[in-house]
Write a structure and sequence with these properties.
This protein is an alpha/beta fold. Helices cover 34% and strands 15% of the residues. α1 packs across α5, α5 crosses α6 and α5 packs across α9. Bound molecules: phosphoric acid mono(formamide)ester.
């Protein structure tokens, strides 16, 4: 994995993904190893973020590395009209690796092809979010002790949800995944990804009602209906409250059920669920530090 960019989750093989998850366990046990003392990482966020940016920055700092970058492109020379190409070419001269979030699908791939500085895609529009996917897989493994043979319910915005797209592709590398796809009609998983599920020997069913899946799933992966992805705000208003998970809905769920959410949450999980033993979304966010440490160490040739 040394010096290789991570743009889409299928840039890595199943074996390489499992290798990252294994190293992440080491960092969970000992997250403050000073292995990045001689490294500078650029953190370029052209879109808002809390977990991805700050868990990357925490991961880097705990490992003794330095972070440069911006949290708002309007504070950079992009504001003066500088192109993405010139921005990346310049920042590559100042850093060993670039972490980038950008609203345009394909922007991270474009950046990764400009020169030899590795790029990690921290989310490109509605396309992919591969590092979220790695921490989602880590959290599933942590709670189910396997990535094979699981019932996975994905709920909410399956059309624009980049975390969903990456996770479905990754879980399709494992054995016998049964996907339960719950969304409003307008926000169904794209046809190309459903075809990918079938082509890889897995199954899926589609639902509009969340109560139809809660009793038959191991992972309940809730997602936000993303206002910023809608061209038509009336359509957003129509679907924004489609799913609100409450404790009472979990009464007949499997003992091993765990609730994940890439976050941020708006209202799709009632705050009372946070103390339910099946809620795992804050631990999931914490796992982001260990998994991103493992990824950085692998790409920089330190693991
Ligand atoms: N999961 C995720 O990408 O969260 P942020 O938008 O806060 O980074």
């Amino acid at each position: 994995m040394k010096n290789r960019s991570l743009i889409s989750i299928n840039d890595y093989s199943k074996e390489e993904i499992l290798h990252i998850l294994k190293i992440a366990e080491e960092f969970e046990a000992n997250p403050r190893q000073k292995i990045l003392e001689n490294h500078v990482i650029a953190s370029l966020f052209f879109e808002p973020s809390t977990r991805t940016r700050l868990s990357f920055e925490s991961a880097i700092m705990q490992l003794g590395g330095k972070v440069i970058g911006f949290t708002d492109a309007s504070s950079s020379s992009v504001k003066k009209g500088e192109s993405l190409r010139d921005t990346i070419e310049t920042i590559s001269l100042y850093s060993d690796l670039i972490v980038m979030r950008h609203p345009l699908e394909g922007s991270s791939r474009f950046a990764s092809e400009l020169n030899d500085t590795p790029v990690i895609n921290a989310g490109d529009g509605a396309n992919q979010h591969p590092t979220q996917c790695l921490l989602d897989l880590y959290s599933i493994m942590q709670t189910q002790n396997t990535l094979d043979g699981l019932d996975i319910a994905l709920v909410g915005d399956l059309k624009y949800g980049r975390t969903v797209h990456s996770l479905v592709i990754a879980l399709s590398m494992f054995k016998n995944t049964r996907f339960h796809l719950v969304s409003p009609f307008e926000l169904k998983l794209p046809r190309s990804i459903k075809d990918f599920i079938i082509a890889n020997g897995h199954t899926y069913e589609q639902y509009t009602d969340i109560s139809q899946v809660i009793e038959k799933t191991d992972i309940l992966y809730m997602t936000r209906i993303q206002q910023e992805r809608f061209a038509d705000q009336l359509e957003y208003e129509r679907v924004k409250n489609s799913y609100i998970l409450e404790n009472s809905m979990l009464e007949n769920s499997r003992d091993n059920l765990r609730i994940l959410h890439p976050m941020p949450r708006v209202n799709e999980i009632d705050e009372n669920v946070d103390t339910n033993e099946k809620a795992h979304y804050f631990q999931q966010a914490q796992n982001g530090v260990f998994v991103r440490q493992a990824l950085l160490a692998s790409i920089l040739g330190l693991r």
